[in-house]
UniProtKB/TrEMBL annotation:
One of its GO terms (molecular function) is GTP binding. PROSITE patterns: RAB (PS51419), RAS (PS51421). Pfam families: Ras. CDD domains: Rab. It comes from the Eukaryota. This is Uncharacterized protein. The keyword Nucleotide-binding applies. Keywords: GTP-binding, Nucleotide-binding. It comes from Ridgeia piscesae.
Length: 207
């Protein structure tokens, strides 16, 4: 694995039980378990996978909360230098969707340059139980959030539907940022990063 391959830290956020560890498990080895809580924990707090996004090779380092959110608030180191956050809710749990805006505030407060991707999980259950969060709920929320969200997805960790596509799309957005930063540095090689330039320090771009 080439060490020059740019690495992006991506964190999983959202309420307990929405399926963050299940997304993490799909990311690691594309498996799924109906176990919950500590039993569903993979035993790692982060894992790395390489993506080829339209010819640009990048590494995504995905971080899971390991269930801490059930008992305590996440530490600021969890958010530190994150390039992106996958903010999850369950499509069958309205409360988890209602709390998304609170999580957005947390992410922005701790990691002002992280891109936020909204992910509705458990669409397989929505088919069986009737959808709690509809497409128009998500659209209304997107309008309220204006430019805060970089993407929205609906997935099922159980069936795997939409999971690979979501990661490929997030990798594409991150790779595009990287390419933009690289092109800009070629055009303006003499411009040095400012002391307080978060984007430059963390290797991210806020375009
Ligand atoms: N039916 C269904 N259950 C899911 C899905 N994703 C996760 N689960 C289940 O939801 C529960 C909580 O998932 P988990 O990944 O531990 O959530 P976390 O607390 O956010 O990490 C577990 O029992 C999972 O098996 C899904 O897409 N469909
Ligand atoms: Mg978990």
């Amino acid at each position: 694995m080439a060490t020059s391959t740019p690495t992006f830290k991506v964190i999983l956020c959202g309420e307990y039980g929405v399926g963050k560890s299940s997304i993490f498990r799909r990311f690691i080895d594309n498996t799924f378990t109906l176990e919950t809580g500590p039993k569903s924990t993979v035993g790692l707090d982060h894992a790395v996978t390489e993506f080829n996004a339209s010819g640009t090779q990048i590494r995504v380092e995905l971080w899971d909360t390991a269930g801490i959110e059930r008992f305590a608030t996440l530490s600021s180191s969890y958010f530190q230098s994150a390039s992106a956050a996958i903010l999850c809710y369950s499509t069958t749990d309205r409360q988890s969707f209602n709390l998304v805006s609170q999580h957005i505030l947390d992410i922005i407060m701790h990691s002002s340059t992280a891109r936020i991707f909204l992910c509705g999980n458990k669409i397989d259950l929505a088919v069986l139980q009737g959808e709690q969060i509809t497409e128009s709920d998500v659209q209304d929320f997107q309008i309220q959030c204006d430019t805060v969200l970089s993407g929205t997805y609906e997935i099922s960790c159980k069936t795997g539907e939409g999971v690979k596509e979501m990661f490929a799309d997030i990798a594409m957005v991150l790779a595009r940022n990287q390419k933009y930063k690289f092109d800009r540095s070629l055009m303006m090689p003499n411009i040095q990063p400012q002391e307080n330039d978060e984007c430059q320090k963390s290797g991210k771009c806020c375009s």
